[in-house]
Design goal:
Strand content: 5-15%
Helix content: 55-70%
């Protein structure tokens, strides 16, 4: 009979521990999500205040991190509406980059599509810190122009920040052990590139 009491007490203690652990885990996850949201908000506000050229170079960095290669920022004026040319999986993209506090018009899509032929690209893309107007989204859909809007851009920023943080930690550890740092990308290939196709 005493062993039943002992087992019951142990089960109660175990149950209480599990409940407390579950509450702590929920609290931890909520805090982490809030911190990520603050970081996302902070970085997007930084982007919202960048000048156009700085934004183009930052987007080029994001593209490289997302698995694009041969990323090239075109010259400022006379670029025929294409700010960046980048390749990904044997597809060359003509990219119009728009940093604006207003909704992006159909003209950005037109510029990317028009510049696609000039630069011998296979695809047109618009990357913005905002959203496209309804007519612009419809036009993008009809001409097959890929859209990277504020939501997707923020995901790219978060992945870049996480990677840079991870690489800083790895570098710190390898400095302590005098090893050679390696860049590690734990994402699946399918997770590395995300864009919205209209």
């Amino acid at each position: 009979m005493e062993w039943l009491v002992v087992v019951a007490v142990l089960l109660l203690i175990h149950f209480a521990f599990l409940c407390r652990h579950k509450l702590w885990t929920k609290h931890y996850i909520a805090e982490r999500e809030a911190a990520e949201a603050r970081i996302r908000s902070f970085k997007l506000s930084d982007i919202d205040n960048m000048d156009g050229l700085s934004f183009e170079h930052y987007v080029a960095k994001l593209l490289r991190h997302e698995g694009f290669n041969a990323v090239e920022v075109t010259k400022g004026s006379g670029d025929f509406g294409v700010d960046i040319i980048a390749s990904q999986e044997n597809c060359r993209h003509a990219i119009q980059v728009k940093r604006s506090s207003r909704t992006i018009s159909r003209r950005a899509v037109s510029d990317a599509v028009a510049g696609k032929s000039h630069y011998s690209c296979d695809s047109a893309m618009v990357i913005t810190n905002n959203y496209l107007s309804k007519p612009a989204r419809g036009f993008a859909r009809s001409v097959g122009c890929k859209i990277i809007n504020r939501d997707i851009l923020s995901e790219w920023i978060m992945r870049l920040q996480a990677s840079e943080s991870s690489n800083r930690m790895l570098h710190s550890v390898t400095q302590q052990t005098k090893g050679k740092p390696k860049k590690i990308d734990h994402r699946k290939k399918s997770d590395r590139i995300s864009y919205w196709e209209p």
